[in-house]
Amino acid sequence: MLKTLSLENNFSPPTMGKCDVLLIAGEHSGDEHAARLIQGAIKKYPGLAVCALGGKAIETAGAQLLFDLTASSVVGVVEVLKNYRFFKNIFEKTVAWIRIHRPKTICLVDYPGFNLRLAQRLVDEGIARKGGGKICLLYYISPQVWAWKKNRRFKMAELLDSLAVIFPFELTVFADTKLPVTYVGHPFAQADYRLPVRYQKEAPTLLLPGSRKQPVCRIFPLMLQAWEHFLFLQPNARAVVVYPTEAIRVVLEEAMTGCSKKVADSIECLPIPMNGSAIDGGSALTSSGTMSLSVALAGIPGAIVYRAHPMTYFLGRMLIDIPYLGIANLLLDTPAWPEFIQGDASPEPLAKMIRSCRTQTELAEKAGDFSAQLMSMLSAQAQETPQDWLLNRLR
Fold this sequence. Notes:
Blueprint lengths: L20 E5 L2 H17 L5 E5 L1 H6 L2 E5 L8 H6 L1 H18 L3 E5 L2 H13 L11 E5 L11 H8 L2 E4 L4 H4 L7 E3 L13 E3 L5 E4 L4 H21 L5 E5 L2 H11 L4 H5 L1 E5 L7 E3 L1 E4 L3 H9 L3 E5 L3 H10 L7 H6 L6 E3 L5 H13 L1 H18 L7 H9 L1
Parallel strand pairs: 1-2, 1-4, 2-3, 4-5, 5-6, 6-7, 8-12, 9-10, 9-13, 10-11, 13-14, 14-15
Helix pairs in contact: 1-16, 8-9, 8-14
């Protein structure tokens, strides 16, 4: 049962009396990437005044958090429609805040369903530069137009002043547009970045159901059932469930109340490490989001698991034509991490997959090879750092 979201408070005015940058990041991964961006920018320019619709990572990095948009993140047509009034309310409040406080620059971070609509509105109202206004519209981390909705790149060129991409091949994707595009490197390939997970052969199996409540509610019970089947084969096995926020931890613990004591006792719940340390895993079941790329870059053998609302899945199959859900599989153009999606996602095959990952050394070797290929793709020399890209366009 989907719950509707609520919005109670109005957005605050800038605490410094001005806003140089308004950041908008609607998902946990975008919040983390935006936090690194703004932390680097503030370090270079301490007087930078940043406001944000984002999450706790952006706030910790030094931005004034107007609204925790990541706490309201949903995915899928049905889920969005269920909460249409909520998102329309946020959207209108965001536009009203921008009209009043006029930030110098707005930096949109991924989250295209909201952010591209906002860009269109700001251009239509003459607030953004492309509409005759003064506010510069930047976009950090492009929607995956190379995978689906390819024509969006032309609309983006009509609305945006600059785009920073994190995959080097994206420069060619936008080559037939007039949009200024800069390759700033992938956050995971930066020298000071540490993956939150690490491969260790004898370590527990990682269960990584994601960061958004609705998908977690559908995916995690399936992972638990698969783990229960695996325990019949390996009674002393251990698993670790990794969660990004306390809200997700509550969802996970509620799901585990329906497990047997044996299953519950075999699982440890840990927060995503934030201090540069990593959680060891010998195999993994992961959702198709950002964590699946972390698993791939760490060379952990495993599989991608995904279940959506049946109507969301049906509409998605009609509207989106991509061969894989996992970003690593899309980049490698092969199912390096097998995908168990919707009807194909059932406990027995997943349990067998865990066993294969833990007993067949060639799977770990292949995962290591794929990891090296991915890191090579993501390690191309950037044209600018993300913070320099932002600050140079502020000037």
